[in-house]
């Protein structure tokens, strides 16, 4: 029994040392907390309330300290919408959700220890679900920074902060120029800051 335990410990240790070799990959499980954001447009106002976010991603290390990742994130929230008079237009029907499908690039900084600070950014699509409007798909992006804590097993933990945004076309504004009226499409963007943790399972090809 002792020999078996020793072999298991040795195996996990070797796997841990290979956690960020080139051509290795990670299965990442996400958990985070998004803080609220206010949106204003033409006298109307909406609030994306704070709430928890969860998801998963597949990360591939094409070199020792650089990776690309495809991930899916979801945050269930409330989105109260107010008219110019300040009255809530969707009272009792303001539940919604934000879904992100993003492709990220991340660079890890080698410190010579099991602590790896990192910075990353990505882009993709955001899908907003609301009871009154159904769902809509928009351009989305994120930036992130944190620390990856490697262990002597295939599991590592990331502590991070991030900013997520999506932009939606909401109408047109017209401006008079020398050549006549010119229409410009107006956009409203969300900016949600969050704090989270990632549980990573690291594997090597």
Fold and architecture overview:
Residues 6-19 have low confidence and may be disordered. With 205 residues, this protein is mainly beta. It has one helix spanning 2-17; strands at residues 24-34, 37-41, 44-48, 51-63, 66-78, 81-82, 95-108, 115-130, 134-149, 155-177, 180-204. The two termini are 30 Å apart. A hairpin with a 2-residue loop joins strand 4 and strand 5 (66-78). 8% of the residues lie in helices and 70% in strands. The protein is built from 1 helix and 11 strands; from the N terminus they run H-E-E-E-E-E-E-E-E-E-E-E. The strands form 2 sheets. The chain has an 8-stranded antiparallel β-barrel with strand order 1-4-5-7-8-9-10-11. The chain has a 3-stranded antiparallel sheet with strand order 2-3-6, with no helix packed on it.
Give a summary of the structure in a few sentences.
By secondary structure, the chain is mainly beta. The protein has one helix at residues 2-17; strands spanning 24-34, 37-41, 44-48, 51-63, 66-78, 81-82, 95-108, 115-130, 134-149, 155-177, 180-204.
């Amino acid at each position: 029994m002792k020999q078996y335990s020793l072999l298991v410990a040795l195996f996990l240790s070797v796997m841990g040392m290979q956690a960020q070799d080139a051509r290795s990959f990670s299965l990442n499980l996400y958990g985070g907390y998004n803080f609220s954001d206010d949106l204003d447009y033409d006298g109307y106002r909406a609030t994306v309330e704070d709430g928890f976010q969860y998801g998963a991603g597949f990360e591939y290390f094409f070199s020792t300290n650089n990776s690309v990742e495809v991930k899916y994130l979801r945050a269930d929230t409330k989105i109260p919408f107010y008219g110019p008079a300040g009255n809530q237009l969707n009272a009792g029907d303001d539940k919604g959700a934000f879904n992100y499908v993003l492709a990220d690039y991340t660079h890890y900084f080698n410190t010579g220890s099991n602590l790896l600070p990192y910075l990353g950014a990505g882009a993709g699509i955001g899908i907003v679900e609301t009871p009154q409007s159904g769902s809509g798909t928009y351009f989305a992006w994120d930036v992130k920074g944190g620390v990856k804590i490697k262990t002597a097993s295939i599991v590592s933990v990331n502590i991070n902060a991030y900013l997520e945004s999506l932009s939606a076309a909401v109408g047109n504004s017209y401006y008079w120029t020398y050549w006549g009226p010119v229409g410009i499409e107006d956009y409203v963007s969300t900016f949600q800051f969050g704090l989270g943790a990632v549980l990573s399972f690291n594997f090597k090809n």
